[in-house]
Amino acid sequence: GEERGGSGRGGDRETSDCVCFSSGTFAVISIMIGSVTEKLAPDSDFTFLNGTNGTAVLDVTARDAYRVQIAASTTVLSGLFQVLLGMVRFGFVVTYLSEPLVRGYTTGAATHVVVSQLKYIFGIHPARFSGPLSQVYVIPTRAYNSRCFVVVSMAIYVCVCVCVCLCVCVCVCVCVLQIVAATLISYYGNLNSQYDVAVVGEIPRGLKSPSLPDVSLWGTVVGDAFAVAIVGYAINISLGKTFGLKHGYKVDSNQELVALGLSNTVGGFFQCYSVTSSMSRSLIQESTGGKTQVAGVVSSVIVLITVLQLGTLFEELPKAVLSCIVFVNLKGMFKQYLDIPALWKSNTVDLLVWLVTLVCTILLNLDLGLAASITFSLLTVIFRTQLPRYSILGRVPGTELYLDTDTYKEAKAIPGITIFRSSTTVYYTNAELYLDALQKKSGIDIGKLLTRKKKRDAKQKRQDKKAKNEAKKQVRHTHTHTHTHTHTHTHTHTHTHTHTHTHTHT
């Protein structure tokens, strides 16, 4: 995965990249990509019958090679979707991601990450599920497949609690010591071979040479690629808004969309699969003080060195240790459950958005859950415009404050003046409700006022028309009296040739 620290613009903290981001693989995106590869390249397509002993043999090499092509094609196509959406300013959709929606969504995403790590912590091999309600099916499977589930749960719980307490002060040292100690214990204790403890395993060295993904697969994976693009962007911008609210800056949503799309498009040519902002690594980077591009550069260099040279040193690292570190660093996301009592006291509609988003994200997965959450959030906007809060304002004596007279008894209405307040904009869908509330609050019959106004306007119109006609008649009479006169003049001339000229001029 690629680590990216963001690029803030100098000292301007108003609009910038999220400098706490650490981009790379994310559990939910990995699950989505994995479900696509398993759907298009199932084991049954690469299983053949061994003619020697009559057993079924799975061609793992051919299967994995084809799955890599599917993942790369999906990644490139999702990256192109993100770049195109960024160019057409699709980032406006972030306007509809309210703070309760974002916090509920990230909490639900953290739940997906936790569930995905259970198999490594408990050392079990459950069946894989995808689609809506997959988490409901996965949790019971993972629980009952472990015979010592309760004992291991308590042990892991104690370890995680200890790690949480230690990580408050020395997060980096604890994580590094955990990894080193666990690797040494696993290596010298032969935990993988003797006790079947899952370890990281072989890490390929070097980087793949760039190659063009199979374009013929695009028509098959276009729907999944678009879902990956939207979910990846939603996770990215949700974390961005969370960190932005915490540190006081605003994230450029369109710029993040283009940057994420370019990362996926270029990475797909190197047989990488789709990346987004990693929740656990971003929280680690933020908790250790990474606030500039240097954090991303250092992370990238370390990852590059590890991939090229140090990968073999981590082959014996137990996966359970990595999962515990992920658990600990997700504690900030689960602290967002404290939003529930706070929202209950401040705004019940926002609380409903938070809870619906959380439930939809967990049950419907991140793609359908995001769509359902945004739809519900928009419905609450319509609900708020249909049922706004109306009040009569009064002035608090000795101040310039105007408050609701029903809520604040100190506020007194101004004699002869009624100040009516609506909590939302008036438009055609709530105009009738506005009039009804105005009549009820003020005690004024709007219908009678409108009838009187129409009669007064009609009477005034008749009077204006009559006055206009009288003015025209007066002007016409004055013009006739002033300019009417007759003048007659006759000339008679007699010559040798008789000519008579008569001139009459009036």
TrEMBL record:
Source organism (scientific name): Hucho hucho
GO terms classed as biological process: transmembrane transport
Assigned GO CC terms: membrane
Official protein name in the record: Solute carrier family 26 member 6
Membrane topology listed for this record: Multi-pass membrane protein
The entry's keywords: Membrane, Transmembrane, Transmembrane helix
Localisation per UniProt entry: Membrane
Pfam families named in the record: Sulfate_transp
Superkingdom of origin: Eukaryota
Domain SLC26A/SulP transporter: 22-357
Residue numbers spanned by region Disordered: 452-506
Composition skew (Basic residues), residue ranges: 452-465, 474-506
Entry's transmembrane regions: 154-185, 215-237, 294-314, 351-383
Keyword Transmembrane helix among record annotations: yes
